[in-house]
Structure formats: C-alpha cells, structure tokens
Amino acid sequence: MEVAIEVKSLVKKYGNLTAVDGISFTVHKGEVFAFVGPNGAGKTTTVEILVCLRNLTSGEARVNGFNVQDRKGQREIRKRIGVLPQDFNTFDLLTVKENLIYYKKMYGHGIDIDKLIELVDLKDKTNALYKNLSGGLKKRLAIATALVNDPEVVFLDEPTTGLDPRARRDMWNLVKGLKEQGKTVFLTTHYMDEAETLADTVAIINLGKIIAMGTPSELISKHGGTKTLIVKKGGKPLYDLLHPILSEVKLESDGDVVAALKNESDLADAVLALNSRKTEFEELIIKRPNLEDVFLNLTGKKMVEGELH
Amino acid sequence: MRRVLAILDGALRTWYRSKPTLFWTLAFPVLLMLLFGAIFSVSQDPTFDLHLQNQDIVDGKPTFLSKTFSDMLNETGIFNLYIVDSTENATLLIEEQGIQRMLIIPSGFEADCISQNASIILKMAPPEVETASATVRSVVDGVVEMFNAGLAGPSPPKVVTIEFESIVSESFQFIDWFAPGLIAMSLMTTGIFGAIGWNTKNRELGILKKLATTPLSKLEWIIGVVLYELVMAAISTVVILALGILVFDMKVLPSIYSIFLIVSGAIAFPGIGMVVARFVKESDAADAAANAITFPMMFLSGTFFPLEMMPDFLQQIAKVLPLTYLNNGLRDSMIYGNVTSALTNTAIMLGIGAFFIILGALITSWREE
User: Does one domain contain both A57 and A102?
Assistant: First the structure.
C-alpha cells in the first residue's frame, strides 16, 4: 500500500512545554486516519506541522513523500492537500459560491464548484451569505473549502466540535464520501464514537504521546476490557442475587446493577439466576466495550467534550 | 496575478456588502472636508476684541492726541473696541471679567508725546501662549508707527512700497491650500487603518491560517490588500475633490502628476499597515497601533499648518515621516504646478511603498513557531 503521511519520532516543543513528544505513525493512501485525544494532547500541533504551518523541533514528517521542513517540499504539499483548520470561519459577506471560488483561485486547478456545492449538499444555499448559514451548514462549507483543489490528502481538524448530533451525522457521511472517492483523510477529534465510525486506523494521543494505535476493533479487543451486563433498575435484590455468581458486581446510585462478564459462562449463569426467581428490573443490557472504554482503561480517565474527568 | 485579483475581488465584495464600512468610506472624507472646510475657509479678515482704557483725561475729556490714537486703532477695522472707563482699575478688571486684551493709554500721554517720551500699555497673553497675540501686536505696532510719523510733521515721502504679486492663481483660497493636505491625510488613514483592520479581521476568522495552507504567497496577499486599499483611497479622494469643488468653490484640480502622487501614497500607506499588522494579533491592538502611527503623522507633516511654523526638532522629525513627502508633493503640484517636486516626491513615496511591501513579505510569517 502506498504511503500518504509518514511521521517519525516527531517532537514539538514550545519553550519548556513539550506538545508533541516523539510520535511515529504511517497513514496509507485512501485511508481515514483519526487522531483522538483530549484538548491539549497535541492533535492540532501535529496537524499544523503536517500542513506546513509550523516548524517541528525534531524528527521527520512527510506528506505524499515531500518533507514538510523543506521549502520545495512545502510548495508541493500545499498543492496537494486540503485543510480545514480548527475553528475556521470564512468570509462573512461572501456567498457560498463566492467563498469557494475565492479559495479555488488560490490553486489554479481543482474541481467544478457547482459539483462541489452539490457534493456538500448546499445547492439551495449557493447564493446565501456565509453569515446567514446555520452552524452545521457553515461547517459543510468549511469542509468544501478544503476540497476545492481536489486534494489527495484532506486534513480535518476537529470538524464536528460544537455541532448538534444531526449535523455531526451529516459530516460523517461527507467523510465517508471522501473515502469512497479514494482520498486520504487525516481527522482529529475528541469524540470516540466519531473515530470508531469513520476511521480505518485510530491513534489515541494523550500528553503528546500516542498511547495506542490500530483499527478500532483491534484497540477494543486489546484494551477495551470485557463485556458488561447492565440490569437497569435492578436494585438491592438483584445485586444480592448476582453478587455470589459474578466476580465484579456493582450497585450504582441510580439502582442499576453493573457486572463485568469475565468468563465465557458468566452471561449464561447470570441469565439462569435471573430466570430462577421472580425479580423486577426494567431492562437487561449486554454492552460490548467501545473506544471510550479503551481510553478509560488506558488513561484511567473519561473524556467529555475534550476535557478529562 | 490571478490570486492577487481574487483577494481584491473578495475584499471589494465584502466592502460593498458591509453597510457600515461602505458608509464610513464615503462619510469619513465628507466629515473631514466639511469640518475643516468650515473652520478654515474664512473669507473675511479676522477681527479681535480689544478693551481700551484712555486714562489721559483732562476736564472730563480725552486729550486730543490720545483721542487721535484711539481713533486710528478703530480705523484699522481689525478691532472690536470696548471702551473702559478711565477710573476703573485695569488689573482688577482683567482678573474679574476675564478680559483677554487691554490697551491702556496712560494719563499724561499727550504731554509725554510732546516731550517725545510717551508709551502705551498693551496687556495680553504673550504670542507663545496665544497665537492671535502676534497679529494684534503687529497691528498695534503699525498704528504706533503711523502715529509717530504723523507727530513728526508732514509725512515723509514713501521710498519703498511693497507690490504683492501672487505666485498662485488669484482665485485660490485657503481651501485650495488645505484640500491637498486633506487628500494626503485620508490616503494615510484609509491605507493604514484599512490594511491593519482587514489583516487582523481575517486572522481572527482563521482565514489567514487557511490561506497559508494554499499555494498563495505572502507577497501576493500583501499586494492584494494594498490594491484593495488603493481602490478605497481613490474613492475618498474623489469624494474630497467633489465636495471641495461643489461646496467650497475649490479651484485646484489634480494634474496628472498629482494623480501619480496620490497612487504612490495609496500604495505606501497600506504597505506600512501590512508591516504593522504583522505585529498586532487582536482587533483592539490593531486600532491602537493604527492610531499611534497616524495621529502624530497627521500633525507633524504639515497637514494643518505649514512646517515652518513648527520648532526645529519637530521639523527634523517631519523629514522622516512619509506623509510629509506626500503633503509637500501634492501642494507643490496642485497649487504651484511644480512638476519636479511632484515627481521627486512620487519617487520617494514609491520607494517607501516598495520598501514596506517587501519588508512585509519578508517578515510576515505564514508559518508559526
């Protein structure tokens, strides 16, 4: 498989602060690569080094084979990449179409703007001013600005932060569409479900270091831990019932009984026990571990909206 | 070039759609012109208030010579005379009534004139404190001289007289001297505020960062913004000229050489702005920086009064201010028709512009540390 991005022992220091601490990874062409981690983990710094906005302190980074530290390499990289910077807003008083034409002219090559507008589903808003668009539509236009030059590699720095669930799903579909077109996508996010849904490869980054990397299912089976049995509103009676049978049983404050399913037979044993007595509960859930559990197991912390708890 | 034009096109569309910006682009020169036009285009000679106390009273009547002197003062037409009773205490009166100028003819004036030892007293703020004092003083001097000559007997023949010949068109008024300065000043404020403002706003939106990831070069970006400010400058210049001609009966018109100058100024100032914009990251700081540059320049470059009136060290400072050269060049070409000065100053302004644009391109960093 051809390599799109290659990073070796990358370090970035701001004075005494080490923002990126010796990370290495490879992104293959046509792959969606997600960089997941809390705010301040070093995600944006890495992106900005890759898109030639920042100097690196040490190590090596290449995009499409071109060195990001080399002047000629930067010129070649800029032609071939599309970037959605974090918190990007474009010209308020230009229309959707005018904004896209503006950025396309910076390249001198690219895709048909009308087709691009259709691709991001903004056809009805072609002549609407940017400032009059809703948050979700603004983000769609912002992504479109990263596609005007028909780039080989697309960098999306937190493309869904602050969006409502529906707008987020729209964005996910857009990213899936990019993958279908064969583009390489480098995505940063602090939403675990987003990485799990979109990415072929996920790198979890914390405090400047990659603490785990692999496909979502690899990461989950390796670090996600066991399946969990949740008995909704089981209360004290169910806790007493399951406690002797399963190894780790907890009674949550809201009355849910949560138990880890460590052994193959655990689930069957629990169901048999539940069946043997008349017990009251609302719902029985068997939850498979996800990337959030991976993060929790690796760092001991939960991540909510990019902040650690 | 395609990229530069795209930047110009985007900025112009934004300008045209932003109602406040559109309004101020047109209203700012209008306000300036109306304000300064009204203050400075005084067509009649100025008059000054003068309190006059004649203490040389004999038998309840002013003496002949003191009466003659006060009549001569009155005939100049420059003073609004207020007669103060001879019994009043002048010093007290000045303090209590806030009188600004008082001329006292002391008692015994006539007798002293005959013994060729007379004096009058002129009480007012010195010229260093109030500029009008200088004018008042020289008018009173003139009256005293005439009075002396009259006393000396039949007036001596006039050996030398002055014939005043204007080196500019007879119909020129103060507004004609002032308008070139106003054009220069608006080129400066439009250019510096505009360039800094546009750059800072786009930095805050993240557009600069985005553009830095495209093949656009810093030089192209700077030239695009400068071109945009050039269009803005053209608009305010046209507004100033139109108002001057229609409202203030202005006679000077820009020659082809002054148009060169205007273009060179409209390039140099946004060039300076783009260098400053490199160092200011927030909107507030941007305004402060623009003010800090434009304000001193406005006053030290001969926009409102001739440079000769300023102290020596300020004149030295004026020599390094770009606006000075634009002011000089514009006045020389528009009022005196001096082509050499116009071309020299155009060259200086273009040099300044090129220097700052290149400096801007060199020090502006798309990349961040």
Answer: yes
Q: What are the residues facing B54 on neighbouring strands?
A: B105
Q: Which residues 36-95 of chain A have a CB within 8 Å of chain B?
A: 48, 51-55, 75, 78-79, 81, 83, 85-94
Which pLDDT value is given to residue B118? Answer: 86
Question: What length does chain A have?
Answer: 309
The reply to whether A201 falls in a domain is yes
Judge: A85–B369 Cβ closer than 8 Å, yes or no: no
Same domain for A175 and A65: yes
pLDDT for B43 beyond 80: no
pLDDT for position B360? 86
Residues A47 and A131 in one domain: yes
Chain-chain contact of A94 with B206 (C-beta, under 8 angstroms): no
Domains of chain B: 2-41+173-363 (no CATH), 48-151 (3.40.1710.10)
Mean pLDDT of A87-106: 94
Is A307 within the bounds of a domain?
Answer: no
Q: How far apart are CA A49 and CA A10, in angstroms?
A: 10
Q: How many domains does chain A have?
A: 2
Do A106 and A251 lie in one domain? The reply is: no
* CA–CA gap between residue A99 and residue A107 (Å, rounded): 14
* A62 and A201, same domain (yes or no): yes
CB atoms within 10 A of CB B343: 15
- DSSP annotation string for A219-288: HHHHHS--EEEEEET-HHHHHHHHTTTSSSEEE-TTS-EEEEE-STTHHHHHHHHHHHS----SEEEEEP
Confidence of residue A43 (pLDDT cuts 50, 70, 90): very high
Q: Which stretch of A128-137, A211-220, B172-181 has the lowest confidence by average pLDDT?
A: B172-181
B365 close contact with A: CB closer than 8 A: no
Q: Is A308 a member of any domain?
A: no
Q: Do A98 and B10 touch (CB under 8 A)?
A: yes
Asked if A52 lies within 8 A of B215 by C-beta distance, the reply is no
- Single out the residue in A222, A237, A259 at which a domain terminates: A222
Burial pattern A56-73, b for ≥16 Cβ within 10 A else e, equals: beebebbbbebbbeeeeb
Per-residue pLDDT at A46 exceeds 70: yes
CB-based contact, B207 to chain A, within 8 Å: yes
Look up the domain containing A154 and give its range. 3-222
For residue A265, the domain's CATH number is: 3.30.70
pLDDT digits (tens, 9 = 90+) for B57-98: 888 888 888 888 888 888 888 888 888 888 888 888 888 888
Q: What is the mean pLDDT of residues B259-267?
A: 91
Judge: B213–A52 Cβ closer than 8 Å, yes or no. yes
A129 shares contact with chain B (CB less than 8 Å) = yes
Let me know if residue A252 belongs to a domain. yes
**Which residue from B minimizes the CA distance to A69?**
B367
A108 touches B: beta carbon within 8 Å: yes
What's the angle, vertex CA B139, arms to CA B134 and CA B145, rounded to 5?
125
CB contact A107 to B (< 8 Å): yes
One domain, residues A281 and A143? no
Interchain proximity B216–A106, CB inside 8 Å: yes
Residues of A within 8 A of B5 (CB-CB) are 105
pTM of the model: 0.80
Q: What is the ipTM of this complex?
A: 0.87
CB contact under 8 A, A149 and B2: no
Cβ B205–A83 below 8 Å, yes or no? no
Whether residue A40 is predicted with pLDDT greater than 90 in this model: the reply is no
Q: Do A249 and A218 share a domain, yes or no?
A: no
Start-to-end CA span in chain A (Å): 39
Contacts of A103 in chain B (CB under 8 A): 210, 214
